Amino acid sequence: MRYRLTFVAGLALGYVLGTRAGRERYEQLKKSAREFAQNPAVRNTVESATQQGRDVAGKAFHSVSEKVGDRVPDSVADRVRSLRERGQSAPVEDDWGTSNT
After folding, report:
1. pTM > 0.90
2. Which of 27, 34, 47, 90 has the fewest CB neighbours in a 10 Å radius?
3. Distance between CA 28 and CA 19 in Å, rounded?
4. Three-class SS of residue 7?
5. Span 12-42, pLDDT tens digits
6. DSSP secondary structure letters along 47-71
7. Residues 92, 99: contact at Cβ < 8 Å?
Protein backbone atom coordinates (compact mmCIF):
# COMPACT_ATOMS: atom_id res chain seq x y z
CA MET A 1 0.00 0.00 0.00
CA ARG A 2 2.84 2.36 0.86
CA TYR A 3 4.39 1.85 -2.55
CA ARG A 4 1.10 2.65 -4.26
CA LEU A 5 0.75 5.87 -2.31
CA THR A 6 4.33 6.80 -3.14
CA PHE A 7 3.70 6.10 -6.81
CA VAL A 8 0.51 8.18 -6.85
CA ALA A 9 2.23 11.03 -5.01
CA GLY A 10 5.12 10.92 -7.49
CA LEU A 11 2.71 10.83 -10.39
CA ALA A 12 0.84 13.84 -9.05
CA LEU A 13 4.06 15.72 -8.38
CA GLY A 14 5.32 14.95 -11.87
CA TYR A 15 2.07 16.16 -13.36
CA VAL A 16 2.14 19.38 -11.36
CA LEU A 17 5.76 20.10 -12.19
CA GLY A 18 5.42 19.06 -15.83
CA THR A 19 2.15 20.71 -16.67
CA ARG A 20 2.00 23.73 -18.89
CA ALA A 21 -1.32 24.82 -17.44
CA GLY A 22 0.57 27.08 -15.07
CA ARG A 23 -0.18 28.45 -11.67
CA GLU A 24 -3.95 28.31 -12.03
CA ARG A 25 -4.00 24.53 -12.48
CA TYR A 26 -1.49 24.13 -9.66
CA GLU A 27 -3.72 26.13 -7.30
CA GLN A 28 -6.73 24.07 -8.38
CA LEU A 29 -4.91 20.81 -7.63
CA LYS A 30 -3.66 22.18 -4.32
CA LYS A 31 -7.19 23.16 -3.31
CA SER A 32 -8.53 19.72 -4.26
CA ALA A 33 -5.82 17.99 -2.24
CA ARG A 34 -6.53 20.19 0.78
CA GLU A 35 -10.27 19.50 0.57
CA PHE A 36 -9.59 15.78 0.32
CA ALA A 37 -7.27 15.83 3.33
CA GLN A 38 -9.77 17.82 5.41
CA ASN A 39 -12.68 15.55 4.54
CA PRO A 40 -14.03 14.12 7.83
CA ALA A 41 -14.30 10.61 6.37
CA VAL A 42 -10.67 10.69 5.27
CA ARG A 43 -9.49 12.07 8.60
CA ASN A 44 -11.45 9.43 10.53
CA THR A 45 -10.00 6.68 8.35
CA VAL A 46 -6.47 7.98 8.87
CA GLU A 47 -6.97 8.26 12.63
CA SER A 48 -8.43 4.76 12.93
CA ALA A 49 -5.63 3.30 10.79
CA THR A 50 -3.07 5.12 12.93
CA GLN A 51 -4.62 3.80 16.13
CA GLN A 52 -4.80 0.28 14.74
CA GLY A 53 -1.14 0.51 13.74
CA ARG A 54 -0.18 1.62 17.23
CA ASP A 55 -2.18 -1.24 18.76
CA VAL A 56 -0.49 -3.79 16.50
CA ALA A 57 2.93 -2.27 17.22
CA GLY A 58 2.26 -2.46 20.96
CA LYS A 59 1.25 -6.11 20.74
CA ALA A 60 4.31 -6.88 18.62
CA PHE A 61 6.54 -5.07 21.11
CA HIS A 62 5.20 -7.09 24.04
CA SER A 63 5.49 -10.35 22.11
CA VAL A 64 9.05 -9.64 21.06
CA SER A 65 10.12 -8.36 24.47
CA GLU A 66 8.83 -11.55 26.11
CA LYS A 67 10.87 -13.68 23.72
CA VAL A 68 14.00 -11.53 23.65
CA GLY A 69 14.14 -10.62 27.31
CA ASP A 70 17.46 -9.21 28.51
CA ARG A 71 19.33 -10.00 25.31
CA VAL A 72 18.65 -6.52 23.94
CA PRO A 73 21.68 -4.20 23.94
CA ASP A 74 21.53 -1.34 26.43
CA SER A 75 21.56 1.28 23.68
CA VAL A 76 18.41 -0.17 22.14
CA ALA A 77 16.71 -0.55 25.51
CA ASP A 78 17.51 3.08 26.36
CA ARG A 79 16.09 4.27 23.05
CA VAL A 80 12.86 2.29 23.54
CA ARG A 81 12.55 3.62 27.07
CA SER A 82 12.95 7.22 25.87
CA LEU A 83 10.35 6.70 23.17
CA ARG A 84 7.92 5.27 25.70
CA GLU A 85 8.41 8.24 28.01
CA ARG A 86 7.94 10.62 25.11
CA GLY A 87 4.69 8.86 24.18
CA GLN A 88 3.34 9.18 27.72
CA SER A 89 3.71 12.95 27.85
CA ALA A 90 1.11 15.42 26.62
CA PRO A 91 0.08 15.10 22.95
CA VAL A 92 2.47 16.93 20.66
CA GLU A 93 1.61 18.36 17.27
CA ASP A 94 3.65 16.80 14.52
CA ASP A 95 4.67 18.35 11.20
CA TRP A 96 1.40 17.30 9.59
CA GLY A 97 -0.83 19.08 12.07
CA THR A 98 -2.15 15.91 13.69
CA SER A 99 -1.79 14.95 17.31
CA ASN A 100 0.32 12.01 18.38
CA THR A 101 -2.37 10.44 20.54
Report:
1. no
2. 90
3. 13
4. helix
5. 888 777 766 677 877 888 899 899 989 999 9
6. HHHHHHHHHHHHHHHHHHHHHHGGG
7. yes
